[in-house]
Amino acid sequence: MGFSLTGAHVIFFVAAVIVAGMVSGIFIGITSNVSTSLSNRGDRIQEQLDTDFTIINDPKNIPTEGSDCIFYIKNIGGKKLITTNETFQLFMDGEIIATANYNFSDDSIQASEYTKIYVAQSTISPGDHTLRVVGPLAVKDEFTFEI
After folding, report:
1. Edge-to-edge strands, sheet with 128-134
2. Do 130 and 60 belong together in one domain?
């Protein structure tokens, strides 16, 4: 005695439900991974937007103090910036300035506040220059000036 037509339909139906369940499980897993990835990327972009600064000097009149040139950095982001030689790197005309040749007046600045960067005049010759300041999360600003 064999299966009837109804029995064969039941077996195919159960097999189809199992296959559909497996496929939907795969789609749920993929959707979950994509959702998590987009959420993480959004968090990184938000953090980068909250970490922003600009150089606010007059390009024709760079102030000096002792043997240093002074550059003003304003925090235009939404969170506190840690301003140390470890969190910021400076480039003058494409060349990195050694950390021993610059320092900040403050260890950190809140949103909308500013700080001074003291750069040794020995690293800056007379003429036109471009200062690039690279901060946390590779946020950067460039400033062209004349000494």
Report:
1. 95-96, 89-92, 128-134, 140-146
2. yes
CB 146 within 8 A of CB 127: yes
Domains held by the chain: number:
2
- Name the one residue in this structure whose structure tokens are 């999360």: 137
Token pair in block for residue 115: 């700080």
The better pLDDT of the pair 69, 6 is held by: 69
The domain spanning residue 103 has which CATH number? Answer: 2.60.40
- Alpha-carbon distance of 68 to 8, in angstroms, equals 89
Mean per-residue pLDDT for 1-24?
82
What distance lies between CA 85 and its chain's CA centroid?
17
- Alpha carbon distance 117, 138 (integer Å): 18
Same-domain pairing of 57 and 41: no
Residue 39: give the domain boundaries. Answer: 1-50
- Predicted structure pTM score: 0.71
What is the residue type of 35? S
- In Å, the largest CA–CA distance within the chain is 106
Tokens matching residue 142: 């460039």
